[in-house]
Design goal:
By secondary structure, this protein is α/β, with parallel strands linked by helices. About 20% of the residues lie in helices and about 20% in strands. The chain contains 6 helices and 11 strands. α1 links the parallel β1 and β2. The radius of gyration is 23 Å and the shape is globular. It starts with 11 loop residues before the first strand and ends with a helix.
Length: about 325
């Protein structure tokens, strides 16, 4: 493809966000906008009337002419007339990308004609089922698998970075023949390894049961999409899945406005992105201001904050201080 033509033109990418835990419709909307800046045509589909409805994702016929399907779904029970668009797409051999909860994307009741997809989508399409995860309070140190450094999806990815996602335990998956790209170590809030935690794959490629090129990651917490390394990984994977690997240098996200909260341009830090709380209005200024209602949140800092405010308010009222 000539260099002056956007790398993802004229591909059609369909993003499917249908889960209730990770605000996936917002994260995927940012990735879709960025893909459009690389020339792609995109469609974003969500559950209706809300993400809590497991049985309705309008517009899945968009998959009929899609070049890439990107899934971030969990425990769906779609009717056959909707699910057939997903099945037909997969069985066409076209590429698939799956995020996190998509390993357990479907939950049909026992005896349902589509019950087989409760496991088939995770294992047969993405390469892993749901097994378990580490504590919600934990996060994950991510590092490049030895021997995978030259894979095009890892272009521009540092040897190590940190994400908020608590680690999924998926071993002994993914299946033989997969290429593991990234591994994860579960760490506690002080960034020490979680006792007993096993290092697990967090990103890999494979050919799914229908022969389609597949990239799967068990990362996908909303804060992960603010990590430059993770954003770059996702865009690289999109280029690779569409056979645009030779143009993968163009996948570097430069327009942060395409991403949730405008993106986060801060360099990688080994610590989670937690910043100290700073009141927008200084206590001294607050003490001089009349409020009809003053709301102070709970937590360890609430009592001393209120005490400081009350003291300075009394000083202001008496003309001292």
């Amino acid at each position: 493809m000539p260099e002056n033509i956007p790398a993802l033109k004229p591909f059609h990418i369909v993003f499917i966000a249908a889960e209730v835990e990770y605000d996936s419709e917002r994260s995927l909307a940012g990735i879709a906008k960025e893909a459009e800046q690389h020339g792609a045509r995109t469609t974003l589909l969500t559950a209706f009337p809300s993400q809590a409805n497991p049985a309705n994702i309008p517009g899945l016929e968009a998959l009929d002419d899609a070049d890439l399907a990107v899934f971030f779904i969990r425990f769906r029970s779609l009717p056959e007339e909707q699910f057939r668009h997903i099945r037909n797409y997969i069985e066409s051999g076209k590429p698939v990308i799956g995020f996190r909860t998509s390993t357990h994307g479907f939950l049909y009741p026992k005896g349902h004609p589509l019950e087989i997809w409760n496991k088939k989508f995770g294992i047969g399409v993405l390469g892993a089922p749901w097994i378990k995860h580490y504590p919600y309070s934990s996060s994950t140190d991510v590092f490049v698998e030895s021997g995978a450094r030259q894979h095009p999806i890892l272009t521009g990815i540092p040897d190590k970075f940190h994400v908020r996602s608590w680690l999924y335990h998926i071993l002994p998956y993914p299946p033989k023949g997969s290429e593991i790209l990234l591994l994860g170590q579960s760490v506690d809030p002080e960034l020490n390894p979680v006792p007993g935690a096993v290092i697990n794959p967090v990103a890999w490629t494979m050919k799914n049961y229908a022969g389609g090129r597949t990239f799967t990651t068990t990362m996908g917490h909303p804060e992960d999409f603010q990590v430059p390394a993770f954003r770059r990984l996702v865009m690289n994977a999109i280029h690779w899945a569409l056979g645009a690997g030779s143009r993968i240098d163009a996948a570097d996200p430069t327009d942060r406005s395409a991403l949730p909260n405008g993106g986060d341009a801060r360099p990688y830090s080994s610590k989670p992105a937690i910043e100290p709380w700073i009141p927008l209005t200084p206590i001294e200024k607050m003490a001089e201001t009349h409020y009809d209602v003053l709301i102070i949140g709970g937590g360890a800092g609430a009592a001393p904050l209120f005490g400081d405010y009350a003291s300075k308010r009394n000083q202001a009222a008496s003309g001292s201080g």
